Every structure is written in C-alpha cells, then in structure tokens.
Amino acid sequence: MRISLKVCLLVTSVVLLIYMIYPTNLSYADSNSGQSTIGGIVVDDLKTDDIREKVQEAVNQWTSEPIIVSGAGTTLSFNAAAIHFDVESTIVTYEQMTKKSWFSFWKPKRIVQLPLQITVNEALMAEIEKVKVWEADSTYHKVLAQATNLASHEIEADVKNLNAYDIERIALEIQPIPEAAAGLSDLVQAINEQLVIPGQPFSLVEALGEEKDRANGEALNFIASMLYSIALKTNSEIYERASQNSIPSYLEPGIEAAITRNGSKDLKFLNTTDYAIELKMTLEGDNLKAEAYGPKNSQNVGVQVTRDYEISPRVITRYSKNLPVGQEQLIEEGRAGLRVSVMRYSADEPEGELISKDYYAPAHRVILKSTKQPEATSTSVDYSEQSPGQSLREKPKLDLNGDGLADYDNGIGQLPTLPQDEKDLPAGSYYDKGGNLVTP
Fold first, then answer.
1. DSSP characters over 62-117
2. Using CA atoms, how far apart are residues 257 and 194, in angstroms rounded to an integer?
3. Angle between the 217-233 and 184-191 helix axes, to the nearest 10 degrees?
4. Does the predicted TM-score (pTM) go above 0.85?
5. In sequence order, what are the beta bridge partners of 340?
6. 2, 148, 169, 214 - which has most CB atoms within 10 Å?
7. Is 307 helix (H, G, I), strand (E, B) or coil?
8. Chain segment 169-202, per-residue pLDDT in tens
9. Contacts from 256-259 at CB under 8 Å and sequence distance 24+?
10. What distance lies between CA 6 and its chain's CA centroid?
11. Residues with Cβ < 8 Å from 280, sequence gap 6 or more?
12. What is the rounded CA–CA span in Å between residue 219 and residue 245?
C-alpha cells in the first residue's frame, strides 16, 4: 500500500514538472490548428526523412524571393537565400518535443508549432543599420521572425521617433507667391511633413506624385525653387537641378530651379546627415514658408551668390503705321543678362564648394515707332533783303553761261569775274542785248 502511494506521488510530481518546463509554444489536441508545424509547414505523422524533405522544399521556395523591408519612405531589398536555415537542428528539436514518455500514454497528442532555427546574419544587420531612421535591432528581429516561420517577404520596419531627438529648425525660406502660380496648395500638401531619409536620394517629382498634374508650370517651378534653397541650406548633396534660364520674381539668381511633370527635369538631392530631415511647407497669406527640421546641426552652412558679370540688353525698334506721326511706344522694358556663381561654405568645405554656374540671357528693350513722316513744306527767300555779308549757302546756284551747270560752287566760291572785252570771250561767244553772255 505504501509502495503504491509512493508511485502515485512520483507520477504526479513528474507530470507537474513537465507542465512547468515545457515552453508556451506547445499545444495539445484542442489547439486551433490541431496540427504540428515546423516553420509553418505541417509535419504531423511524418517520418524524419519525410519531414526533412518537406521542410527543405519549403525553405528553397521561400528563399527564391527577395525580402522587402519598408519604412519612412525607404525600401530595401534583401536576398533571402543569404539567410542560413538549420533544418537538421530544428527537426531534432521537434522530435524531442513531440516524443512521448512512458508515463504520458494517457495524454492526448501533443501539437507543436516550431519555428525554424537560423544563424545570426551580420550582413543583414549591417544593411538595416544603414537606414538611420530605422530602429535597427527591432527591425532586424522582425525580419528573422518572418524568416523562421517562412512568412511574408514584405516587412514593415520600425521607424525612429523624431521627437526622441533634439529637433530644431535647420533651414527656412519665405518668398512671395507668383501671381501666375495655379494649383500650389495641392503641391504644398504633398510635400508638407515628408521625410528626407539619409543615404537615399530624394526626388521632388516622385514625392509630388499625381499632385503635380493639378498645378501649372509656374507653381511647379516655384515649389522646386523653394525646396532647392532648403536643400542648399541643409548641406544636402545636389544630384540633379535644372535652371529656369530666366530670373523669376522670387529668390536670387542661381537659386531658382525647374521641374517637369514627365520627370525630364527633376530636383534630386541626398540627405548627408545621419538622421531624417522633415520638410514643412505652409501657405501664409501671399507667401509660402518652407522649413526643414532635424537634429541640431553643429555646422553653419552659408550660401553665396556672386554676379560674375552683366550683359547689356540691345534696343530693338519695330514700326507700325497705326501710331500717330512722330510717336513711339515701349513694348518691353528690357533687362540686363547675368552670369552668376553659387558657392556653399561649411565646416567640411571651408574654402567653398562650387554648386553651379548659371547664365541668364538679357531681355532686349523693344520700342514701337510710327512709320508716318511729317509732310515737307516749301518756303521762298527774298534775296533782295539779304544783307551783303549773308552766306552764299542760302542762294540758289546760278547758270550764267547756259551750259546747264552751276557757274560756281554754291556756298564755297564767289561769283566768277566776267570778261570786260569781247576779244577775251571764248570763240563764238558774245553778249546779247540784255548783257547776258551767250556761249555756243
């Protein structure tokens, strides 16, 4: 009797011990799945070789597709085949957990959902750490959790909270809105609160998305110019920028930028800091305010625009018969052309970094004049009233010899002296009754 009591107590103690030491991922016949799995693959009632073959086939299929990790505007693709799965060790663990002891014959079938065992992948961790805006450790473990269960290849990264850092405004630009800009509010909403991720080029055309189709070219260029100014002030590396080739009514020459809806012209830059930069854009009356926020930057960044030289405009004259006589009209005021250089100075570039050289052609001055001329008026002169010293330039030319030519150079010489004796006249010449010299 005492022996039976001791055996009963021993069995009870062992059962209680088993309940205490088995992990929580063990379940029994009343489990929702009702089947044991390895890495999500059902392996109930299979022999070891069959389990190995089935699990390995599932692993090969899963590793044939890339792992996509996304978060805060950044997407990275990883080769799933780089993850090493230890199938053999996983099967050994599975068989140990599902093997029945001699004293557990009365228990129902044990159900086990066992993840696959994998080795630590330092290369994968290093790639995740490159995205400074991600929480590297938690994101890495998310990837491993998906892999051990052969689950979805698409994983959402854990993004760092910007409020956890000493955030401040690191760039500011305020400019008047051009009168011709249309659809600007849609563009502002698309850019406001966007994150510029470190190490990943930022494309304005991509960031605007479909909203760029709701605005005209003037609004697109204005947004591009404002963001270009911010990118320069945050010491971002400029990858692509197109000039408008004309000086707008806002910003300095050399700071403006242009984009197109089809992306043939784009504004692209790279955040060179270790943390994300948040963009802010707000409409304030007739002005647009653009800001950039990020961790406190010890660098003082300065941007300088130098006017290398000016090109004077030409004057273009056009004619119109519709203008009154002697009047003219200004069609275009004209503007001098410019050649400018943009330099940026920082702690990394104390000597200055040449950002761009831009040329703006002069706008010529255009004047419209009347084609009509004032009518000419004839006047007669009474030579009898002229003073003796009056210049001969005001007298008509005289033809004294009748040869059809003036007998003196008008205004230059004096009247020629006529011969007093007929013998001094040219042959055949004579004086008529009126005293005029007749020359044959």
1. HTTS-EEEEETTEEEEE-GGGSPEEHHHHHHHHHHHHPPPGGGTTSPPEEEEEPPE
2. 19
3. 30
4. no
5. 307, 358
6. 148
7. strand
8. 999 999 999 999 999 999 999 999 998 988 788 9
9. 256/221, 256/225, 256/228, 257/221, 257/224, 257/225, 257/227, 257/228, 258/220, 258/221, 258/224, 259/204, 259/205, 259/212, 259/220, 259/221, 259/223, 259/224
10. 83
11. 192, 193, 289, 290, 291, 292, 293
12. 16
Number of H helices, E strands in the chain: 8, 24
- Tens digits of residue pLDDT in 286-339: 999 999 998 776 568 899 999 999 988 888 888 888 888 878 888 888 888 999
| pLDDT value of position 248 | 92
Q: ∠246-362-248 over CA atoms, to 5°?
A: 25
> What is d(CA 194, CA 224) in angstroms, rounded to the nearest whole number?
15
Is 206 strand, coil or helix?
helix
Cα–Cα distance measured from residue 126 to residue 428, given in angstroms and rounded to the nearest whole number: 125
Tell me, what amino acid is at 86?
D
Cα(163)–Cα(275) distance, rounded to whole angstroms?
12
Q: Is 302-376 CATH 2.20.230.10?
A: yes
Angstrom CA distances, 273 to 180, 202, 363, stand at 36, 13, 41
Q: Domain residues of the chain, as ranges?
A: 19-156, 161-297, 302-376, 391-440
The pLDDT of residue 377 is: 62
159, amino acid identity: V
Instruction: Answer whether 132's CB lies under 8 Å from 274's CB.
Output: yes
DSSP 385: G
> Which residue is it, tokens 């007739």?
286
Could you tell me which residues are beta bridge partners of residue 26? 112
